[in-house]
Amino acid sequence: MLRRRRIFVGLIAATLCLGINALPPAHAAGEELPSRLSDKAFWQLVSDLSEAGGSFRSENFLSNENAFQTVIPDLKATLPAAGVYLGVGPEQNFTYIVALRPKLAFVVDIRRGNLLEQLLYKAFVELSSTRAEFLSRLFARKRPSDLAATAPVDTLFSAFATAAPSEELFKENFQAAKDKLVKDHKFALSDDDLKGMEFVYSAFFRGGPDLNYSYSPNGASGFAGGGFPSYMELMIETDGQGEHRSYLASEENFRILREYERNNAIVPVVGDFGGEKALRAVGDYLRQHNATVTAFYTSNVEQYLFQEAYAWRRFLQNVATLPIDSKSTFIRSISNRGFPFSQFRRISPGARASTALCPIADVIKSFNAGQIHRYEDIVAMSK
User: Fold this and answer.
1) Contacts of 336 (CB under 8 A, 6+ apart)
2) Contact between 89 and 117 (Cβ < 8 Å)
3) Could you give the CA distance from residue 61 to residue 308 in angstroms, rounded to a whole number?
4) What's this model's pTM, rounded to 2 decimal places?
5) Are residues 382 and 334 in contact, defined by beta-carbon separation less than 8 angstroms?
6) Alpha-carbon distance 280 to 125, whole Å?
7) Which of 73, 101, 344, 368 has the CA that lies 20 to 30 A from 7?
8) Coil, strand or helix: which one is 347?
């Protein structure tokens, strides 16, 4: 027992000492990173990389970050295409993926419900040739007959906001999604998974374009509580410079996303950022395929990790094992409540949070130097 304890302590010490210079090279010998995965390879990755599911304080059917597009111009100007994107949460990842054009993307979230939501999106995106077809499926509402394919995104959503939800379409669309995933792709979804996916879909059916972060599956409150932006409001947001960049902003953006989904190039993973497996397993896969993480969208997960004694340390230890370079960038959401507005260059009027960037290597270097102790230390490094 004493020997085992000494080995464990030694492993912890070695992990704490791990720094950027100690990482395996991002381009070690190995296979080329694929931009298209077979159905079998995709599901194998989903299964092999995932941990046991955990829970969060809300369902997170939808993002609540209406300023998330403001960093896209800087990201496009500084990050190379064809890298690897890591993210967390639901639909905001699609907008970042469409803008950054990675070769492969991984969406890592502690909730299995998020994996099921990603798969529901995947089915509906693959089944839809246009944005209007997709929204008709997502919200189970008949497409307005006079809606042009080239309609601006605000016109598109306004049209569906006045369309009535259809129970018949809900059943038809969900069956089509199940057939796409289980019969066509042959993904091994359990009965519980399918029930969980139907639960997710019911939120979109009931909420429609007005669905927001505060939606309660139990029917409490409505879709406008808490001052959170609706699905429509998030999709018609701009990058702060007047350009609409959401994944539904144009037919071209949607076509790009559809190609990713048809290529199985967006891989949902169940994983705790501070857990023992998921992030490290993703890193192992990327090193085996000569790949580098170019962008890692963490939303505001770090804020919650710092509320636990060791979770944030485990997270940064996990990040230190990822293959990165000097351009690899954290994208994080930081609440405008409690932090000085002047710290950030990108403040949207009325935004609940600011979206900020930070080199991943700088964070790991500071962590290894013992300079990170509080969430505020992370915030101070974000610009």
Assistant:
1) 347, 351, 352, 353, 354
2) no
3) 24
4) 0.89
5) yes
6) 29
7) 368
8) coil
Contact call for residues 230 and 80 (beta carbons, < 8 A): no
Domain of residue 88 covers 2-380
pLDDT digits (tens, 9 = 90+) for 268-294: 999 999 999 999 999 999 999 999 999
- Per residue in 168-215, pLDDT (tens digit) is 999 999 999 999 999 999 999 999 999 999 999 999 999 999 999 877
Sort strands 104-109 and 329-335 into parallel, antiparallel or unpaired.
Answer: unpaired
Three-class secondary structure of residue 353 per DSSP? strand
Question: CA-to-CA distance for 310 and 62, rounded, in angstroms?
Answer: 28
| CA distances (Å), origin 267, targets 47, 158, 328 | 10, 31, 20
Q: In what order do the strands lie in the sheet with 266-270?
A: 266-270, 104-109, 84-87, 293-299, 329-335, 353-359
How many separate domains does the chain show?
1
> Contact at 8 Å (CB) between 55 and 114?
no
> What is the C-alpha radius of gyration for the chain, rounded to an integer number of angstroms?
21
Alpha carbons 275 and 281: distance in angstroms, whole number: 11
